[in-house]
Structures are given as structure tokens and as C-alpha cells.
Design goal:
Arc Repressor Mutant, subunit A; 22% strand; D-Maltodextrin-Binding Protein, domain 2; alpha/beta; 48% helix; 12 helices; nine-stranded mixed sheet; two-stranded antiparallel sheet
């Protein structure tokens, strides 16, 4: 077996051209350097140096030198990477997110994080609530932004921080609901054409379920596809406000205020397994995500 100190001694003797100068550079006695070289020669199966007034590499030494230096460089890189990982500058960051929060919340936070931590390997997976819990259970992600409370999953989860966002009914400006001066509950069921039923929580909200039943022709559809439909003027739907914030600001969608309808909210949280170790990279990303969420 060869050891790093033997490889380091070999490299230093080559660089210095002398056992004695190599010993000075390494802070060792010359006998210690000679012993390390002898042990390395025993490991590789032959002499590495021609020992004369001026030492020279043997053919074996010439062929072995680049591999010894590559091994030393790999170890140096590993030590440097480990030190950077200890302060959150290297290593993996594995995050999960609800699709409806991935673009408007996780995206800006990740952009800020990557700018300041360019060497961290980032992976973000998005999907529905149950998919994210599976990723957490299997250790594929270290934290996930999902609905809260998570329900009877059997998983022990810790909420790092929680979010509450309003869920609003929206339609295109030319939609019949958007053109009315006042909208009542029965107007929604009658005029949505169709009412788009979106799954932005563990299950459909009871108020929206009742409205869908009254409309008699609801459409159950994924959030992004529903957004495209309402932007095109087809149908109306209840969306988490953050998901369609830009469309509202641009005027592509309009909020429909329904008289007599109590406000609807969606609660979510960034969660993790409480007994899993938290890497410095994850801790740094959580700080960024918390700042972006507050903004």
C-alpha cells in the first residue's frame, strides 16, 4: 500500500532534484524522506530514482510521476471542495416544489442563490403534493415546498417556514364574468363556461367543489394548462394568487370578486425530515428563499 506522504515525498524530490532539499521543503529529516521513497518503490515494484551525485528518474519513475501528481491533485481538490462545502460554497442542493410555486417563488430564489454560490450543484424537482412527499421519503430531495399541513402521510416532517397566499377567481378581461359590475355565486356557476377545477391543495376546496357541481360542466385540469385557457378567454378558475401575479399585473387576467364568497387561502410550507442533516448549502438557500418569500 502506498500513502499520500510517500507520493508527496516523491513529487518533492523530483521538483527539488535532491533528497536533502526535499527534506527541508517538507520539514522532515532526510532519513524520513529516504524511508518514504523506499516504501513507495517497494509498492510500485522497482527503483524510481537513479541515485548518483545528481539523482535522476528511472524509466519506472518517469512513467509513474504523472499518476502520482494526478493523485495528489485529486486529493487537494477533494480537500478544497470539502472545505467549501462546509461553508455552503460547494456540494449538492436538492429541492422540491409545488409546480405553482416553482416559477414565481423558487425560481427567483434559485437565481439569487446560484449567483452567489456558483459551485453548488442545484437540483429542483416540481410536482404535486404526494410526489414531493415521496421524494422526501426516498431522500431524493432534502427539503420541499408543499402544502401544509401535509395530512396523514406517516412522515415526520418539520416546517421550516410557512406561507399563506390568497386563492382568487380570475378570467380574461373579455370574459362574461369580468364584464359584470357585480358577480354573485350563482353567476360563477352559470357564466364560467367552463369553471376550471384546479388541484392546488391536497384535495379540492369544498366551496369550489360545490360551485363546480352547480356549474354542471366543470373541467378538471392542470394548473399551467388552466392558465393558458383563461388567458385565451376560455373559462374561469380559482388560482393561488402568486401563480398568476404577473398575468394580473399585465392585465392579461382580471380578478373576479364574488359577492358573499368568503376568502379562500392556501397554506404551504418548506418542510424537511427533522433528523436528516442539514448541509450548509441548504441552510444558505433557505435564508434566500425566506427573503424572497417575504418580498
Amino acid at each position: 500500500m502506498m500513502h499520500l506522504d510517500q507520493l508527496a515525498a516523491f513529487d518533492r524530490v523530483v521538483r527539488e532534484g535532491s533528497f536533502s532539499r526535499a527534506a527541508v521543503a517538507l520539514g522532515l529529516g532526510q532519513p524520513a524522506v529516504s524511508a518514504r521513497i523506499l516504501a513507495l518503490e517497494d509498492a510500485v515494484g522497482g527503483a524510481l530514482f537513479l541515485r548518483a551525485r545528481r539523482i535522476r528518474l528511472t524509466a519506472l519513475g518517469e512513467s509513474f510521476l504523472p499518476f502520482a501528481r494526478r493523485a495528489l491533485e485529486v486529493v487537494r481538490e477533494g480537500v478544497a471542495a470539502s472545505r467549501l462545502a462546509q461553508v455552503g460554497e460547494r456540494g449538492p442542493l436538492r429541492i422540491g416544489s409545488l409546480g405553482s410555486l416553482a416559477g414565481e417563488l423558487v425560481g427567483p430564489a434559485l437565481a439569487e442563490f446560484v449567483r452567489d454560490h456558483p459551485q453548488v450543484e442545484c437540483t429542483v424537482r416540481s410536482g404535486h403534493h404526494e410526489f414531493l412527499l415521496e421524494l422526501l421519503a426516498d431522500g431524493i430531495v432534502d427539503a420541499a415546498l408543499t402544502v401544509w399541513p401535509p395530512g396523514g402521510t406517516g412522515l415526520d416532517l418539520q416546517a421550516i417556514f410557512k406561507l399563506r397566499e390568497k386563492v382568487i377567481l380570475v378570467a380574461a378581461p373579455a370574459h362574461p364574468l369580468a364584464r359584470r359590475r357585480e358577480v354573485r355565486r350563482d353567476d360563477v356557476a352559470r357564466l364560467a363556461r367552463p369553471l376550471l377545477r384546479l388541484r392546488w391543495w391536497r384535495s379540492h376546496h369544498p366551496v369550489i367543489t360545490a360551485l363546480a357541481e352547480e356549474s354542471r360542466a366543470p373541467v378538471e385540469i392542470a394548473m399551467e394548462a388552466a392558465r393558458r385557457l383563461v388567458l385565451a378567454g376560455t373559462g374561469a378558475g380559482f388560482f393561488p394568487e402568486k401563480f398568476i401575479a404577473e398575468d394580473l399585473a399585465r392585465g392579461g387576467l382580471r380578478e373576479i370578486r364574488v359577492r358573499g364568497l368568503e376568502p379562500i387561502f392556501r397554506d404551504s410550507a418548506l418542510v424537511r425530515r427533522p433528523h436528516a442533516p442539514m448541509s450548509p448549502a441548504l441552510a444558505s438557500f433557505i435564508d434566500v428563499l425566506r427573503r424572497v418569500a417575504k418580498r
